[in-house]
Amino acid sequence: MYFKTIIQGRLEFGTQKSYDKVTKMFLQRLETYYKTDVFFKFEEIFKDDEMSLEIPRFVSQVSDKAFKTTTNLLGYCAQFAIAGSIRAWLINEGGIMHFETLEPISDKGAVQSFVRGRKLVKVKGKETEAIEALSTAIEKYDRHAQAYERRAKVNFMMKNYHDALRDYNKCIGIDPTIPTAYYGKAKIHILKSEWQQAIENLDESIKKSIALQTLYWKSRKLKAECHIQLKEWQKAAFDLKLFTNRSFDKNDPNRYWIRWANYNYGLILIELEEYLEAMKAFDKAAEAPDVMDGISEADILTNRGLAKQKAGKSGYAKDIKDAAAKGGKKAKNILKSLK
User: How far is Cα 68 from Cα 304, in angstroms, rounded to an integer?
Assistant: First the structure.
C-alpha cells in the first residue's frame, strides 16, 4: 500500500572530511543494506560544492517500508552534520501516520551550543542566555541556519527588530526551506505596516510548510489580515474561506481564532456583496466559543442583521434590537434610523 510522503530540509557538514565520510557511508549503505528501498539517488541530494545534503521538497507516493528505510538512512547522515534539519511526513487520508525530524545529535561544539540555545528560547527570563548560546553556535559554524532563526525569534521577543530581521535574512540565505523564518520576517514587516512585504513572506511560509502544520494556518490567518489592511477583499476572502472550513484539533492554537475568522470573513463577504454567504459566516461566528478576540456578541448580531437586510431576508430587525440590548452602539444608531 502506498501513502503520500513529504520530505524537505537541508544538512550542512561543514568540513570536507565530514562530507567525504558521509557520502562514502551513504553509498556503502545504499549498496549493502537498502538497495531499492531508498527513493533518493545520491546525485539528487548531495551538493559537492556546498558540502551539504539538500531536499527542497519531495512529494510522492511511497510504501511505509520505503519511508522508514529512507528516513533511517537520512537520520544516519544527520549524525555527520554540524547543522541543519530534515522534516519528513507520511500521510494517509489527510492524517499523519509518521513524522520525523532528522537533526544532528553529537558532541560537536556547534551542535551542543545550538541544542542548549534552542531549549533556552522556551524558558521565560532566559533570553540573554539563549542568545549567547545561539551566538556561540554561529561562531563555531557561521552557516547554522537554525541558530540564526532561533536567535531571530529571541531578538523579536526582546523587540530588537533590526537584529531579528538580519538573522531571519541570514537563515533564509543559507536554508530557504525553513518556514518559520518567513513567518518571523512577516511579523516584523507588519509592525512597520509593510503589508505587501509581509504577504510575500507569508506566501513563502505557506509554501514551505504543509496544511497539517499549525504554522501553515497561522500564516493563512495573518496573510488574510494583511489583505484586509490593503482592502484586497477577494484575496482576504480566499484565505479566510480556507481557514474557516478547516477543522482544528482541540490542542491547535488556531482554534482560538475561529470566531474572529468567521466574523471577519462575514465582513469581507458584505464588501463583496455576497450577503447570503455573509449571513452563514456570522452564524458560525455566533456559534463559536466566546474568547478574548476583540469581538462582542453585539458586533456579530449587528452585522448579521445588516447582511440579512441587504439580502432581503427577514429577521434583521430582531438581530439589530438584540445587539442594541447587549450594548451595541452601532445597533442603537441603526435602530434610531429604522424608527
Answer: 51
Pairing of strands 83-92, 46-47: unpaired
Neighbouring CB atoms inside 10 A of 34's CB total: 15
- Cross-strand partners of 91: 4, 96
Identify the residue whose cell numbers are 551539504: 52
Q: How far apart are CA 217 and CA 75, in angstroms?
A: 28
Q: How far apart are CA 134 and CA 274, in angstroms?
A: 50
Q: How far is CA 239 from CA 52, 114, 182, 218, 289, in A?
A: 36, 35, 17, 11, 21
Model-level pTM? 0.93
Mean pLDDT by 10 residues, the chain (339 residues): 95 96 94 83 95 95 94 96 96 92 93 96 96 97 97 98 98 94 98 98 97 96 98 98 95 96 98 98 96 94 96 93 92 81
Burial class (CB in 10 A: 0-12, 13-18, 19+), 310: middle
**Three-state DSSP state, 209:** coil
Count how many Cα atoms sit within 13 Å of the Cα of residue 169 in the half-sphere of its side chain.
8
In the chain, the amino acid numbered 49 is: D
For the 107-176 domain, the top CATH level (class) is mainly alpha
Order across the sheet with 2-12: list the strands. Answer: 46-47, 52-63, 2-12, 83-92, 95-102
* Helix H or strand E segment including 65: helix 64-78
Residue 57 to residue 37: CA distance in whole angstroms: 19
- How buried is residue 280: exposed, middle or buried, by Cβ count under 10 Å (0-12/13-18/19+)? middle
For residue 117, which amino acid is it? G
DSSP state, 101? E
**144 φ, ψ to 5°?**
-85, 90
d(CA 26, CA 30): 6
Amino acid at 189: H
Domain boundaries, the chain: 2-102, 107-176
